[in-house]
Amino acid sequence: MRLAYVSTCRPRECGLATFNENLVQAINQHIPFSESGSFMVALNDSDDKYQYDYDDRVKFVISQERLTDYQAAASFINRSGADLCCIQHEFGIFGGRNGDYLLALTRALRVPYTVIFHTVLEHPDPMQLSITRKLADKAAKVIVMSNKAVQLLRDAYRIPLGKIVSIPHGVPDFEKPDMQATRRELGLPSGNMLLTFGLLGPNKGLETAIKALPAIREQHPDVKYVILGKTHPGVLKHLGEDYCDGLKRLAMEIGVSENLLFISKFVDEKQLHAYLTACNIYLTPYPNVAQITSGTLSYAVGAGAAVVSTPYWHASELLQGNRGKLFSFNDHGQLAAVVNDLLSNPVELNKLKQNAFRYGLSLRWPRIGKQYTRLFKAHIKAREESSMLSDNTLMRVTSSLTRPLSWKTYS
Questions:
Q1: The pTM of the whole model exceeds 0.85
Q2: Is residue 401 part of a domain?
Q3: Element of type H or E holding 399
């Protein structure tokens, strides 16, 4: 089976690029990438085709805002002998209004495709609704990563349930290292450590976590809040480092600068796993409910971290069964109370970690890769059987038409 993957691709520093790489590697265990002739089609965020130093698995590059590239990519995939195309979807990585240039590719594809929706909006505008429905209508299957996403696609987008498949976000298959040894290797301070990671921007709720620090420090003076990650490229383009500078000013104004540590780099998954192991508590203080999938949250659970989060959609699902603690949106007082309680109660803290780690075993990429492989193979098999049935029917019809006709007269 030859697969064509359409996505942002490494070395671009992007969550979808990381997800796509992990998916390729996981499926590679069952459908060998090179032997099958599989390949990637990469999305660039500029007109420079040589913007990123892709490896030789990338056979075609699309410049995000160049419509003709999408049409040419479809032609390339059609000629490639691919059996199935796997498209990673986020509105922001495709060109045009709300990413509608992708429709030029899917309209021209003669190869069946699946689309993985990383974002599903509860209240899409008319164009977003139309794009999502058009993508789903032509897709062999639509893949999402939570039950809430299934419900939204069914109710808000009127996509048939039979077309939707839910497969959780995969997480790295790493062993859990020793916490203190990992801290020493990373050069992190001793004491209680809180962590948030990911691309930084105003939609992360980091102000809430910083405002909680004074009350946390009262009970746990050694606490450090580590914010790991670079400013989001879109935020950087329009605002520069104003957002992160504002967070630092906030910390200074409320007297917690010494308790805040920024590590401005995009780390690989092995390093990320190490940071998650090193922290006492992982925070996702997102300010609103409409977060359908969070790769960072999945990684934290997969690493067996104790998670404290606002109750956005993905967190409400993933942290069930005492796999984490929730606090109200924008409520730094409640966040401080939850964190203080956990830091003062190591038995409860360790229970959260154990529950998360056990559940995280079901999210590891080798298991998730099997689910995708079964889905892809089942579709190709069904398509081949349908084609054989059509061919046999045509042969029977053709055969009957070539036989001599006999006439019977009724008197």
A1: yes
A2: no
A3: helix 365-402
